[in-house]
Specification:
Length: 468
Amino acid sequence: MLSTKVTDCNAHGQDSSYFLGWEEYEKNPYDEIDNPNGIVQMGLAENQLSFDILQSWLDNNPDAAAFKKNGQSIFKELALFQDYHGLPAFKNALVKFMSEIRGNTVTFDPNNLVLTAGATSANETLMFCIANPGDAILVPTPYYPGFDRDLRWRTGAEIVPIPCSCSNSFRITKSALEDAYQQAQKHDLKVKGILVTNPSNPLGTSLNLHELDVLVNFISTKKIHLISDEVYSGTVFSSPNFISVMEVIKNRNLVNTEVSRRVHIICSLSKDLGLPGFRIGAIYSENGDIISAATKMSSFGLISSQTQYLLSEMLADKKFTKTYLSENRRRLKHRQETLVKGLQKAGIRCLKGNAGLFCWVDMRHLMSSKTFQGEMELWKKVVYDVRLNISPGSSCHCCEPGWFRVCFANMSEKTLAFAMQRVKSFVESMTKKNSNQSRQEQIRLNHARRTKSLPKWVFSLSTQQLEV
């Protein structure tokens, strides 16, 4: 007999269309030379735009990559046992980088930081800390499909959606929070907290001050936790500027209060530095009990000492971090505008975004029906016929069909232009097909009207002529 984790793997969420699109891409990946008819991967939120800046730093700092300090090898020191608190030099460098990303509006204490093997591990660890099996966490929709795995699969917690609508650009409202809270109570679920992504994945927008105030007020009233997943904080490339929940806590004089001890941040270097393979994540909290428990739990997913050392050297170079953040934001802005303009030429619009590695794209007018079935039919056409892997809104639990997440930073500009040409050709063929169908339908209706208006003797005469 095997455990239920083995026999009930569906709860992992791997059968979601979000992951199925990846599987189709892996079977037939696009390559300009070797497979020009393959599927272009536009479902992967990965930042490949600024690797040259990282590579340049490595070239200019060979000792760091060779695990040397002051010309002397420290390989043995790094290779031997390290406790799970993490290297002090790395934690100090990381909190300073977190402050720099936020415009130095807030500072962070390295003693309140827990290192984890990526943001996935950080989110799950926090869920273990604040929720028991069967407890609920409220999450605004649409949300990152991986949360179904990260927050629920091993913890046994439940996600209760906070439905957000395109009518207000998917902004979080007090009424939506209250409705979700009441919905959880109707199902006898104890709400332990709210999790938001700021900036949002998949919307590509950052939370405004009003939304953050509403969230802080709500958790204060309900005495629940707030997890702010800020892994895309360094990708904000245009106004409005990014506001961290910690800035709100500071400005409202809530530091070191009961409220601040129920506010926690998730951060990572996967998006901000484009290093998902390095598995760098962290939990920041002023709650001593959570820091203590999460630190112990982190022993199941540590970051290697070698990785910590290399990145501590990189992040301590303030000239590098300043250059990287500025140039990376410029490149992201340019690339996002390229995608938006390419889609506009095809008659497709996007939600106005200011952050992230993707756009939230409105394709409602291309659906055969204004339903989630219509959305899936369109998604299959895009994946199998147009050969682009994009993520349908339903995989992100969007409450309205017809929206899709389209990534732009994991490919070359040439590949993006090629993908946009495929989109344009597809829309033109759809428009032509719909036009022909409309014309045929109009002809049928006109014929029906003419036939209906003819006197009965015409039909009798026609019948007699046929009989002759």
